[in-house]
């Protein structure tokens, strides 16, 4: 059990992520390919990434970016300090990485860093990007559900709605893990859904970074997504539906645009149309304008959302955490 000790001040800032994390989804895809039941062979360009898995099936934290946009995640990986790479590789492999290129990575060799960034991008393009639309839709449906609970019933209820591998008692959050240890949370706590990761994951990260708890929100079977999952888009149009889903939690126009994957002007236009229809309300907080879904929109989102996938029982899936 990983026990996260959260101070009252930090607990008040606890939040959910803005969307799925591309590199965490990549790690989930790689874990599936490492499974004995896997029938698919990974592309040649991706195979060096399997060297990053320890005997316990863990990867160094530097591979687990919290960025929700792949370009930013790759940039973060390309600029990670050598000291952090070395420290996390030595910790993961007890000072003895098996692959020669990992020794080069720990030593700061540019060629090894190029291997890392090239393989990670190739892995994302081959294993995650083809399913990204479904991954993003599932994650945002899950986040909208948690966001409504958070807004109406509070943080404790939102945490209680997560899979049973995550528990909450006072100022402590417990995450199932084979090793018992406590982790202080000094710079924030974030919860993020993952569609491809088979279990719960704790990313402790570097100095000054928040702790991130990733929980499973598995993709529903294709048959389960046909019909109801597309009904909101059929009613409002794909882009307007995406803007409304993004407004399930208060967001500025720029944030709506980023979440929906559209231009700022388009987001503003759709927000105006939704406001005129009574589906969002717009308020001003200082210089920032915030758009929030109304109760009418919440009812519409709930009616159009597919049932949340039921997480696999804790005993049948691994739970693992960063160091």
Task: Kindly summarize this structure in a few lines.
This is DUF5937 domain-containing protein. The protein contains 14 helices and 11 strands. By secondary structure, it is an alpha/beta fold.
Features:
323 residues; alpha/beta; Arc Repressor Mutant, subunit A; 3 domains; 5-stranded mixed sheet; 4-stranded mixed sheet; 14 helices; disordered C terminus
Describe this structure in words.
The chain is α/β, with parallel strands linked by helices and 323 residues long. It has 3 domains: 2-19 and 132-220 and 309-321, no CATH class; 22-131, no CATH class; 222-304, Winged helix-like DNA-binding domain superfamily/Winged helix DNA-binding domain (Arc Repressor Mutant, subunit A), CATH 1.10.10. The chain is 45% helix and 15% strand. The chain has 14 helices and 11 strands. It has helices at 8-11, 22-34, 70-78, 82-92, 100-106, 110-128, 132-153, 155-160, 222-225, 228-236, 238-246, 253-260, 264-276, 295-304, and strands spanning 2-6, 15-16, 166-169, 172-175, 181-185, 189-194, 201-203, 211-216, 280-285, 288-293, 320-321. It has a 5-stranded mixed β-sheet with strand order 2-6-8-7-11. Strands 3-4-1-5 form a 4-stranded mixed β-sheet. The protein has a two-stranded antiparallel ribbon with strand order 9-10. β3 (166-169) and β4 (172-175) form a beta hairpin. Residues 222-229 and 308-323 have low confidence and may be disordered.
């Amino acid at each position: 059990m990983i026990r996260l000790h959260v101070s009252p001040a930090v607990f008040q800032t606890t939040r959910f992520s803005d969307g799925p994390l591309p590199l965490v989804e990549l790690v989930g895809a790689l874990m599936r390919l490492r499974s004995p039941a896997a029938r698919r062979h990974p592309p040649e360009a991706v195979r060096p990434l399997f060297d990053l898995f320890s005997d316990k099936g863990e990867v160094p934290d530097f591979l687990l970016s919290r960025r929700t946009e792949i370009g930013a995640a790759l940039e973060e990986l390309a600029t990670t300090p050598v000291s952090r790479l070395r420290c996390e590789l030595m910790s993961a492999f007890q000072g003895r990485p098996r692959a020669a290129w990992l020794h080069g990575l720990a030593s700061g060799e540019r060629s090894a860093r190029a291997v890392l960034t090239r393989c990670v991008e190739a892995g994302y393009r081959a294993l995650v990007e083809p399913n990204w639309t479904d991954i993003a839709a599932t994650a945002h449906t899950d986040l909208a559900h948690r966001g409504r609970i958070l807004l109406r019933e509070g943080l404790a209820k939102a945490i209680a709605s997560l899979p049973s591998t995550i528990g909450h008692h006072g100022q402590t959050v417990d995450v199932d893990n084979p090793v018992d240890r406590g982790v202080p949370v000094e710079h924030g706590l974030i919860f993020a859904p993952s569609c491809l990761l088979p279990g719960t994951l704790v990313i402790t990260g570097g100095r000054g970074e928040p702790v991130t708890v990733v929980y499973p929100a598995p993709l529903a079977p294709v048959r389960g997504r046909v019909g109801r999952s597309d009904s909101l888009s059929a009613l409002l149009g794909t882009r307007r539906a995406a803007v409304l889903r993004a407004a399930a939690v208060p967001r500025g126009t720029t944030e709506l645009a980023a979440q929906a994957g559209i231009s700022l002007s388009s987001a503003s236009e759709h927000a105006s149309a939704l406001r005129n229809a009574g589906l969002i309300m717009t308020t001003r907080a200082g210089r920032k304008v915030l758009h929030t879904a109304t109760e009418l929109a919440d009812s519409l989102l709930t009616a159009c959302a597919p049932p949340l996938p039921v997480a696999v029982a804790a005993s049948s899936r691994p739970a693992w955490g960063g160091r």
